């Protein structure tokens, strides 16, 4: 297992077949601005994305990966963040893409942030869950991670799992497309806060999301041969392929039960108005 070191604004990548220990490179070597580069600001060990009434901003990894884990240490927009969305996610390209989303939905001052997760498989999403958090995500940095395993996708907050999407018979599972890592901030006041009833108050701009660390540890894929390699000949040689990573531990399972019991505020599997016939993964309770 590679040792994952945490360095300020560094990306740590362990390539399949390539390394027994992680190597570090600068943020700019592995990430680039994806839009509005003038709204992406470096301040020492911090990176900031700014939203104002002219533009939001985003960054994207220069490479794509198959399986592994990505984590961002994020402090969300302080104060009145209504109408804003900060996203941290993995995605492949094209209409039939796969995507794993964290979307942080801003709110009026004093009201809690909501964290929406969603999963797209072959271009089809509509798998939203929303939760509030057990801390103030604007007061300090917290870690948000996506574990992409051949058997499960796990969303975690400060290493506490909040959602699991598992491989199972008869249910689509993403395993054939390399994915980039992305983050952005933008205005979504048509839907993000209380269903769009509360609009962005631009007198409070700029809205700033701050990053202290962004990390990737996964199998880098640049070609179709890389994709075969990540899925095939090296399977079992990486920490994310180990049997213990294929399912939650007993402790993690208890954490997930606690989170869902105390902080889940919306689950597409419990919305018969949208889904009179439950999606197959919901019928098995595996989302």
From TrEMBL:
Its EC number is 2.4.1.207. Contains at least one intrachain disulfide bond essential for its enzymatic activity. Residues 1-23 form the signal peptide. Residues 2-211 form the GH16 domain. One of its GO terms (molecular function) is hydrolase activity, hydrolyzing O-glycosyl compounds. GO terms for cellular component: apoplast. Coiled coil: none annotated. Belongs to the glycosyl hydrolase 16 family. This is Xyloglucan endotransglucosylase/hydrolase. It comes from Acorus calamus (Sweet flag). The gene is XTH9.
